[in-house]
Specification:
alpha+beta; 35 strands; eight-stranded parallel sheet; 782 residues; six-stranded antiparallel sheet
Length: 782
């Protein structure tokens, strides 16, 4: 962040919103606007049009029932935002830059009745030098056009593109989920969704700052860094300028240097730093950070430009090798500061379908990320790029970030125009985020490679011919953040994987998304795959009654109708994109099918149905995490799906839109403790008891396992486990009976708990509820 730039926020100015159908009579200039019959209401910036429409009483709350369907007519509307501002006081040599941090998304910008530019991307900032256009009082207008009408200008040109609502999104740089998704409603919004400001720039300014940890020596607390720097200036002679560089924390100055310069761009090598406090992922140590300051000084010591970043010193790598066969599944493991890190984390999906409200959810959602002891979060490609505050929090708390570029689940255009759009977007995104220590991976997209296998009529094109993920994006990462790994897609179907399968098939990928039939959670689909790393895996769970009553009108909460024939509001929350759509129409049936895998009957009473659904989800999610952790070394991480809903829906999330937690939250919190004791399913030797230590320290304690029905202690013993390791410490005898075992262990003065649940073949719901009650009475479930 350049500390020499003055920022003038325009958010609090009075904003007005004009709107109407984008037909042949729609106003496309300010003069036409003032002579039109467009409606006029007060506007909020940052904001989305739906917020203003609801405040004005024009629409009903779109989060309730089927109200989101009623927004469809606004998809083809034209929106004009208007405000005015006073000309700021500036020196003759300064420039005034108008900066929009986010416009959704196709818009013309007008200043004092002159069009100063056009934009077509919601994901990135847009800037305009308006110094010469300024008057004493300035009128600013933003005309936002319909993305739906814009998409109709393009011809479908890729055989791999989706054949549902997502197909109309591919040419438009707008969050893909907004066109309709299984976890989000169709809500094709518009708005100035991020801050608007004026920046007063000096003639000499720092243009680019890039900090890199080149190597680390953890044992001796040493590191080698380098700094790439570049500045702009109107000075002809720069030989009297000095670059001042400092790295410090709250206690000590780690490095300080003044350098006489003779060029506007160069690299500073900072070798043999000593007494370094390294940045570690959560669980492995402290995420130490330093203030890294760069100042450009004149010969008298006057600061001409200044940049301050907060950086961590660490070396992060992704070790990935190809699978050669089912027997040789390759490798996929993150290594930080020379230590393999088992990943326990989640997928970060949209915080809200109306993105100007994202910031309202951020802090509370992030606190749950920490509470669950996640050490990584995957930024899902169907979303927007998150606000700076999010990445700051990840830096400060040791949360590693896997960052998808904003594309997902289809084949995007392969032409030069679209490639140029992505090149510009990716450059802005990478340069904005690259100094965040938390970023450990750039991924080209979400599931674009494997999207071809979802349609039986699809001709399988080798995804390695994709110019966006195989040429444009890796080149951007190489040019602007070459020390961060790049993965072309998640899952990535490499040339070798495509050759082995003879088609697009993730079977041979060392990193996979495990959705499959969505039935029994211990099925071979989950237990017999060769994946070394799973970056998506989840299970449905019904929200609490309280949440259902908030997201649906009273008469639709219950009954759904006879024999689970879901009514229209349960269907809308499924999520069905449009009342005419058949996509996701049977999605609520997942809860029924999954309950049938565990319990003897599917309750028709709503409260019992919710309990049964949440129990099955909780046991499934617990099992997935335990299965991966108990195979630590052979398997290297799990990013489960997902933490929180971004809309009131029925989904795989463990926390709903209203922040009400499902039972799975409690279960996941227990099995993601750094040191965890788990019991596996039966083998020839019995049920294995496994201890996993995901810290660097040796740990010792004691544990007890007892039977829930008899209260009999099955085993009680001490243990010692090495740092960053796994140990099988014994077996429990196999039994053909349904069983529920309590696990409790103590380390120091702290007590941890877990349980094992096995059943043959099905269990009465009341029996399980009795076990759950015992858990709660004993305060085993926290």
């Amino acid at each position: 962040m350049d500390k020499q730039i003055e920022h003038i926020n325009l958010n609090l100015n009075k904003w007005t919103l004009y709107f109407g159908p984008q037909d042949r009579n729609a106003p496309l200039t300010p003069v036409e606007l003032y002579n039109s019959n467009f409606e006029e209401i007060n506007a909020t910036v940052p904001g989305n049009v739906e917020i203003d429409l609801e405040k004005a009483g024009i629409i009903e709350d779109p989060t309730i029932g089927i109200n989101s369907y009623k927004l469809r007519k606004y998809e083809t509307y034209l929106w004009w935002y208007k405000t005015s501002f006073v000309k700021p006081k500036v020196n003759e040599d300064q420039n005034v830059i108008l900066c929009f941090h986010g416009i959704d998304c196709i818009a013309d910008i007008w200043l004092n009745n002159v069009k100063i530019g056009s934009v077509d991307n919601m994901f990135v900032e847009h800037t305009f030098n308006i110094t010469k256009q300024l008057e004493q009082i300035n009128e600013l207008l933003v005309c936002i056009k319909s993305p739906i009408l814009e998409s109709r200008k393009y011809e479908r040109e890729e055989l791999g593109v989706r054949d549902d609502a997502l197909a109309e999104s591919v040419h438009i740089r707008k969050a893909a989920h907004m066109y309709g998704w299984d976890i989000m409603p169709r809500l094709v919004s518009a708005g100035i969704w991020k801050d608007v400001e004026l920046k007063i720039e000096n003639p000499t300014k720092l243009k680019s700052i890039y900090w890199v940890t080149k190597s680390v020596d953890v044992k001796n607390k040493r590191a080698n860094l380098y700094l790439d720097w570049e500045f702009d200036t109107d000075k002809l002679n720069i030989d009297d300028l000095i670059l001042f560089v400092q790295i410090k924390n709250e206690q000590v100055i780690l490095y300080e240097q003044k350098i006489k310069i003779y060029t506007t761009v160069s690299r500073l090598r900072i070798d043999n730093l000593e007494n370094v406090n390294f940045w570690w992922p959560k669980g492995f140590g402290e995420p130490d950070l330093y203030y890294a300051t760069v100042k450009l000084l004149d010969s008298e010591g006057l600061i001409l430009a200044e940049d301050e970043q907060i950086i961590g010193i660490r070396k992060a790598e992704l070790v990935r090798t190809e699978a050669n066969s089912i027997e040789n599944p390759g490798e996929f493991v993150f290594v930080v500061n020379g230590e393999k890190v088992f990943i326990k984390g989640t997928n970060w999906v949209p915080l809200d379908a109306i993105h100007s409200r994202d910031r309202l959810h951020l802090k509370k959602t992030f606190e749950m990320l920490l509470d669950l002891n996640c050490n990584m979060v995957r930024m899902w490609g169907g979303n927007v790029y998150e606000n700076d505050e999010f990445y700051d929090l990840c830096d400060q708390n040791g949360i590693m970030v896997w960052q998808d570029f904003a594309m997902g689940c289809t084949v995007y255009p392969q032409n030069k125009d679209f490639a140029n759009k992505i090149d510009i977007e990716a450059k802005k995104v990478v340069k904005r985020l690259r100094n965040h220590t938390c970023i450990v991976l750039w991924a080209g997209n979400n599931e674009n490679d494997i999207s071809q296998e979802w349609d039986e009529d699809q001709i399988h094109i080798n995804p390695n011919d994709n110019i966006i993920s195989r040429q444009i994006l890796p080149n951007v990462v190489r040019r602007f953040d070459p020390h961060t790994p790049y993965l072309p897609s998640s899952p990535y179907i490499s040339s070798e994987a495509f050759r082995l399968a003879g088609k697009v098939d993730q079977t041979y990928a060392p990193e996979q998304h495990l959705w499959g039939p969505r039935g029994y959670y211990k099925a071979p689909f989950y237990t017999e795959n060769i994946a070394k790393f799973v970056s998506e895996i989840g299970y449905h769970g019904c929200p609490n009654r309280e949440s259902l009553e908030m997201m649906m009108e009273k008469d639709f909460v219950y009954p759904w109708t006879d024999e689970f024939k879901w009514n229209e509001q349960w269907q809308a929350k499924a999520v069905i994109t449009h009342p005419h759509s058949e996509v996701h129409r049977k999605r609520n049936d997942l809860m029924i099918n999954q309950i049938k895998c565990v319990f003897t009957e599917v309750p028709k009473d709503l409260d019992k149905f919710i309990k049964a659904s949440q129990i099955v989800q909780a046991e499934a999610m617990k099992y997935f995490i335990e299965f991966w952790r108990m195979n630590k070394g052979e398997r290297n991480g799990i990013l489960w799906w997902n933490l929180k809903d971004g809309w009131p829906i029925i989904s795989d999330a463990i926390v709903d839109y209203y922040f009400n937690k499902k039972l799975a939250y409690k279960f996941i919190k227990r099995v993601q403790s750094d040191i965890c004791i788990m019991i596996g399913d039966s083998t020839e030797k019995g049920h294995p008891i496994v201890i996993v230590n995901d810290t660097l320290e040796v740990s010792e304690g004691s544990f007890t396992i007892k039977d829930a029905d008899s209260d009999k202690i099955l085993i009680k013993t001490d243990f010692v486990i090495e740092g960053n390791s796994k140990d099988n410490v014994g077996f429990l005898m196999n039994s053909n009976d349904t069983k529920f075992w309590f696990i409790k262990w103590e380390i120091g003065n702290k007590t941890y708990t877990n349980h094992y649940f096995g059943y043959k073949p099905l269990v009465e719901l009341e029996k399980y509820l009795n076990w759950l009650n015992i858990l709660e009475q004993d305060e085993i479930v926290n």
